[in-house]
């Protein structure tokens, strides 16, 4: 008894859990930032302003990670496998606003790394180049979050305690950075030191680039032609395919008509030849002494040859008509 060969299962892929290369890189960088913020909170325990800035950024990360968990769970093909075997439970707990569960973001970072490693770095670069719209959007969001945190911490570090400074609390620093990034500039908060003004210039330049590009992205998204309209045929353009089909149909009909007319003529000729051959046969049998028997035989053979040719022509025309149908 020959044992059956064991069939190997195909390797399990994570393509269904991968929600876009740019998106996964965005979530991975946010995970790294959140873990770094946790370390900073534990190290700089005596700086109240720094703790407040990091706490506000951690709240923003919680909201983003909760949205990410809902997005992954609702779009996953196997929700149970994602939740229990792909650390979905860790994604949910890590988005809870409790410091005890924030360390679970390491599992999120590990999963994103595994998913991206399955693609390969060449495929990642190629996808980012070709999918420029999503890559640009994720890059803008990432730059906005980075500037919001780093700008707030930097402006607070150089302005706090300076003579005549009006940015001396964490809320003032975050408000100034947010207003400057959005290019609104109320003027209620402003730096007074040279280092603070230099940081403000950097924030302004980055903010103009971020919101300018983001505005262009939204304009193209809402005002640009949709894919359906771009792929739809132009109704005002002449329908060349219909004209070509009509021309071909008319040509075929003309050929069939000619063939039918030739067949009718051949049939009439065949009938006439048969009648002539029969008449010749009867005339040759009843010929009188004034006629020549040899001439009658020659006419009969000639008519029989004509009859055979007409029958062949009729058969060919019938076959041609059947093929045309």
From TrEMBL:
<dbReference type="GO" id="GO:0008076">
    <property type="term" value="C:voltage-gated potassium channel complex"/>
</dbReference>
<keyword id="KW-0631">Potassium channel</keyword>
<dbReference type="GO" id="GO:0005249">
    <property type="term" value="F:voltage-gated potassium channel activity"/>
</dbReference>
<keyword id="KW-0812">Transmembrane</keyword>
<dbReference type="GO" id="GO:0001508">
    <property type="term" value="P:action potential"/>
</dbReference>
<dbReference type="Pfam" id="PF00520">
    <property type="entry name" value="Ion_trans"/>
</dbReference>
<protein>
    <submittedName>
        <fullName>Ion transporter</fullName>
    </submittedName>
</protein>
<feature type="transmembrane region" description="Helical">
    <location>
        <begin position="198"/>
        <end position="223"/>
    </location>
</feature>
<feature type="compositionally biased region" description="Low complexity">
    <location>
        <begin position="279"/>
        <end position="294"/>
    </location>
</feature>
<keyword id="KW-0633">Potassium transport</keyword>
<feature type="domain" description="Ion transport">
    <location>
        <begin position="22"/>
        <end position="222"/>
    </location>
</feature>
<feature type="transmembrane region" description="Helical">
    <location>
        <begin position="21"/>
        <end position="44"/>
    </location>
</feature>
<feature type="compositionally biased region" description="Low complexity">
    <location>
        <begin position="238"/>
        <end position="256"/>
    </location>
</feature>
<feature type="region of interest" description="Disordered">
    <location>
        <begin position="279"/>
        <end position="302"/>
    </location>
</feature>
<feature type="transmembrane region" description="Helical">
    <location>
        <begin position="136"/>
        <end position="158"/>
    </location>
</feature>
<keyword id="KW-0472">Membrane</keyword>
<keyword id="KW-0630">Potassium</keyword>
<keyword id="KW-1133">Transmembrane helix</keyword>
<keyword id="KW-0813">Transport</keyword>
<dbReference type="InterPro" id="IPR005821">
    <property type="entry name" value="Ion_trans_dom"/>
</dbReference>
<feature type="transmembrane region" description="Helical">
    <location>
        <begin position="50"/>
        <end position="71"/>
    </location>
</feature>
<keyword id="KW-0407">Ion channel</keyword>
<feature type="region of interest" description="Disordered">
    <location>
        <begin position="228"/>
        <end position="256"/>
    </location>
</feature>
<dbReference type="InterPro" id="IPR028325">
    <property type="entry name" value="VG_K_chnl"/>
</dbReference>
<keyword id="KW-0406">Ion transport</keyword>
């Amino acid at each position: 008894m020959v044992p059956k060969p064991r069939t190997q299962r195909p390797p399990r892929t994570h393509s269904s859990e991968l929600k876009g290369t740019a998106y996964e890189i965005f979530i991975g960088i946010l995970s790294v930032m959140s873990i770094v913020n946790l370390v900073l909170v534990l190290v700089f325990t005596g700086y109240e302003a720094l703790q407040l800035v990091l706490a506000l950024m951690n709240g923003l990360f919680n909201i983003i990670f909760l949205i990410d968990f809902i997005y992954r769970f609702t779009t996953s093909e196997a929700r149970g496998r994602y939740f229990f075997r792909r650390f979905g439970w860790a994604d949910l707990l890590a988005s809870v606003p409790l410091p005890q569960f924030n360390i679970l973001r390491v599992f999120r970072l590990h999963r994103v790394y595994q998913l991206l490693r399955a693609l390969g770095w060449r495929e990642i670069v190629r996808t980012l180049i070709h999918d420029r719209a999503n890559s640009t959007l994720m890059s803008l969001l990432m730059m906005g979050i980075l500037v919001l945190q780093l700008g707030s911490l930097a402006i607070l570090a150089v302005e706090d305690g300076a003579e005549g400074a009006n940015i001396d609390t964490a809320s003032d620093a975050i408000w100034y950075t947010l207003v400057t990034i959005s290019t609104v500039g109320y003027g209620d908060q402003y730096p007074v030191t040279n280092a603070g003004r230099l940081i403000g210039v950097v924030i302004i330049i980055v903010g103009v680039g971020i919101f300018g590009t983001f505005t262009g992205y939204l304009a193209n998204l809402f005002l640009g032609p949709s894919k359906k309209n771009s792929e739809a045929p132009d109704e005002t353009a002449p329908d060349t395919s219909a004209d070509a089909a009509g021309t071909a149909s008319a040509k075929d009909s003309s050929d069939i008509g000619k063939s039918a007319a030739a067949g009718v003529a051949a049939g009439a000729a065949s009938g006439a030849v048969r009648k002539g051959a029969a008449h010749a046969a009867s005339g040759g049998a009843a010929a009188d002494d004034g006629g020549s028997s040899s001439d009658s035989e020659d006419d009969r053979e000639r008519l029989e040859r004509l009859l055979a040719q007409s029958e062949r022509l009729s058969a060919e025309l019938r076959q041609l008509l059947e093929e045309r149908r």
